[in-house]
Amino acid sequence: MNIIVLLYWNLTMVLLPLLISNTIHMLVVKKRLLTFLEIPIWVNGFGENKTLRGFLVMTSCNAIFCYLANRSMHLMLNPAMFGAMIGFTYSLSELPNSWLKRRLGIAPGSKAHNHSTLFSILDKLDSAAGVAIITWYILYLINPTEFPWYNTIPILTLCNSLFHAFFSWILVLLKIKRSF
Questions:
Q1: Of 45, 111, 143, 153, which one has the greatest count of Cβ atoms within 10 A?
Q2: Residue 70, CA distances (Å) to 7, 44, 80, 91, 105 in order
Q3: What tens-digit pLDDT sequence spans the chain (180 residues)?
Q4: Strand residue runs (E) in the chain
Q5: Residue 30: how many CB atoms within 10 A of its CB?
Q6: Closest CA to 87 of 67, 108, 110, 107
Q7: How far apart are CA 171 and CA 176, in angstroms?
Q8: What is the distance of C-alpha 68 from the center of its chain?
Q9: For residue 144, how many other CB atoms are within 10 A of its CB?
């Protein structure tokens, strides 16, 4: 698979379903839906914004949208499972950055005053890298020789980070998201 095909596949089969799932999650949070699932995972570690609701909404929505996008994909696992893995990994990958921010005294949902550029980059890179790693792993299971980690993970991480940054900007313009 050449790089253009890989990037197209990543965009259509991974990033677009993830974008829809993440937007739905933001709307669920903004409209205060499913409040019974607003159970923080670990308040002292990640803050009160990282909740069971986020994991469940991202995992289930992404399973649905990946299934719809990938119905014809012939993976070793079904597209809904693939989507659930991507959605769960996206949420899981945000936790180390949240943990670091809580250790530095940055309140949940707040911007860092010191090193704001670094944290802005980390905010776009954390989930992008996690999704790149799980996507590589799934591709590796399909064809181990065609997807070496040292090529695939950096390319997907860069692509995912740029996509994340661009759509964060769009969602801020649409007033779905508060800050870039």
A1: 153
A2: 15, 38, 8, 21, 42
A3: 688 888 988 998 899 999 999 999 999 999 999 999 999 999 999 999 999 999 999 999 999 999 988 776 666 578 899 999 999 999 999 999 999 999 988 888 787 888 788 888 888 899 999 999 999 998 888 888 888 899 999 999 999 999 999 988 898 898 877 776
A4: none
A5: 12
A6: 67
A7: 5
A8: 18
A9: 9
The β-bridge partners of 51 are 40
Angle subtended by helix axes 79-93 and 16-30, to nearest 10: 60
* Dihedral angle over CA of 15, 18, 22, 24, nearest 10: 120
Q: Which of 136, 166, 131 is nearest to 151 (CA)?
A: 136
- The tokens describing 3, both together, are 């790089």
Cβ–Cβ < 8 Å for 61, 87 = yes
169 φ/ψ sector (left φ>0, alpha ψ -120 to 50, else beta): alpha
Q: pTM for this structure?
A: 0.89
Take residue 21 and report the two structure tokens written for it.
Answer: 């799932």
For residues 126-135, one letter each, b for 16 or more C-beta atoms within 10 angstroms of the residue's C-beta and e for the rest, the string is bbbbbbbbbb
